[in-house]
Structures are given as structure tokens and as C-alpha cells.
């Protein structure tokens, strides 16, 4: 499952090529793209377009993984939203913010090229793997990004600023 702008700038074309190679190697997997944009994928890719939040959450919750080939994310809400649905992620290791969250949260895997992308998909399809990675990602989101957790950090920052002045 991919959620975001469907364009080459987000490397959706690269993602389609990676999944296509995985499929040609004999692996049964579909790719669903949710979002709008000019990229026109091949006919085997399921493009659902822009969907409402409830539909998007349902699609992500039912996916093997939320995948991204983008290397230019500064912070990925899509990554955190997937983990909020207990869905693991697979992202390009060259995107440092996503790779750091993945390493810190344990909610998915990173890849560096075709072989490790395929290995990552295969690992996430092993019995129990989706549940383990998904649970770790959900726990990370709850610990770091719940309203309570953000509120505590925000109040601490305000208090620090108040004391400094």
C-alpha cells in the first residue's frame, strides 16, 4: 500500500518497478496506490485515487505493509499513520528521517535496492511478522506521538523557555 502524491517526485515509478520485479520473481503481491497525481502506473497496479480518511485507514490496516520509495521526506505522517493502524512499513533507507523512525520504532524495515526490497517484503510476509512489526510501530506512535506524549514535551519546552527569560 502506498499513500501520498502519485508522482515521480515521490519515486512512485521506482516503487512500481520494485514491486514489478518482485512479482516477476514469482511472488504474489498487489500494489495499491492511494492519492492523486500525474503518474500513470501499469494496469496491474490498483490505483484508488484520493480517498477519505476512513477508507484510507481501512486500506492501510488491511495491507501487508505501507511502502515508500521517497528519499526526500523530512517527517512522514504516512509512516506514523500506518503504525497507528498496526501496519508495518517498508521504506528506502536513503530517506534518513524515515529510516531513523523505523530503527527507533521497530515498526518496519528499510531497503537499499531491489534485493533488499524483495527480502523486506518476504520478511514481512512471514508468519507473525506483520503482527510483531505492527505492534512495535503502534507502541512507538503511542509512546512518542500521542496527544499526551506531545503535550508533555510541549509543556516542558514552554517551561524551559519561560525559565530562560
Fraction in beta strands: 5-15%
Number of helices: 7
Mean pLDDT: 94
Query: According to CATH, what is the topology?
Result: Rossmann fold
Structural summary, described in words:
Helix content is 52%, strand content 12%. It is an alpha/beta fold and 165 residues long. The longest helix is centred in the C-terminal third of the chain and has 18 residues, at 147-164.
Summary keywords:
6 strands, globular, alpha/beta, three-stranded parallel beta sheet, 165 residues, 7 helices, Rossmann fold
Topology:
Elements: E1 2-3, H1 12-24, E2 32-34, E3 46-49, H2 53-61, E4 66-68, H3 77-84, E5 89-92, H4 96-105, E6 108-111, H5 114-124, H6 129-145, H7 147-164
Parallel strand pairs: 1-2, 2-3, 4-5, 5-6
Helix pairs in contact: 3-6, 6-7
Summarize the entry for a quick read.
The chain is of the alpha/beta class and 165 residues long. It has seven helices and six strands, in the order βαββαβαβαβααα.
Amino acid at each position: 500500500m502506498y499513500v501520498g502524491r502519485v508522482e515521480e517526485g515521490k519515486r512512485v515509478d521506482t516503487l512500481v518497478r520494485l514491486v514489478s520485479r518482485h512479482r516477476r520473481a514469482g511472488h504474489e503481491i498487489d500494489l495499491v496506490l492511494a492519492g492523486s497525481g500525474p503518474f500513470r502506473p501499469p494496469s496491474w497496479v490498483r490505483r484508488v485515487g484520493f480517498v477519505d480518511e476512513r477508507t484510507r485507514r481501512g486500506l492501510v490496516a488491511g495491507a501487508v505493509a505501507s511502502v515508500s520509495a521517497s528519499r526526500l521526506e523530512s517527517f512522514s505522517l504516512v509512516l506514523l499513520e500506518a503504525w497507528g493502524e498496526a501496519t508495518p512499513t517498508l521504506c528506502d533507507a536513503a530517506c534518513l528521517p524515515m529510516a531513523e523512525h523505523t530503527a527507533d520504532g521497530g515498526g518496519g524495515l528499510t531497503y537499499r535496492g531491489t534485493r533488499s526490497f524483495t527480502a523486506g517484503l518476504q520478511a514481512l510476509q512471514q508468519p507473525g511478522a506483520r503482527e510483531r512489526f505492527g505492534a512495535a510501530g503502534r507502541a512507538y506512535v503511542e509512546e512518542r506521538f500521542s496527544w499526551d506524549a506531545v503535550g508533555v514535551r510541549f509543556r516542558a519546552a514552554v517551561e524551559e523557555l519561560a525559565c530562560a527569560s
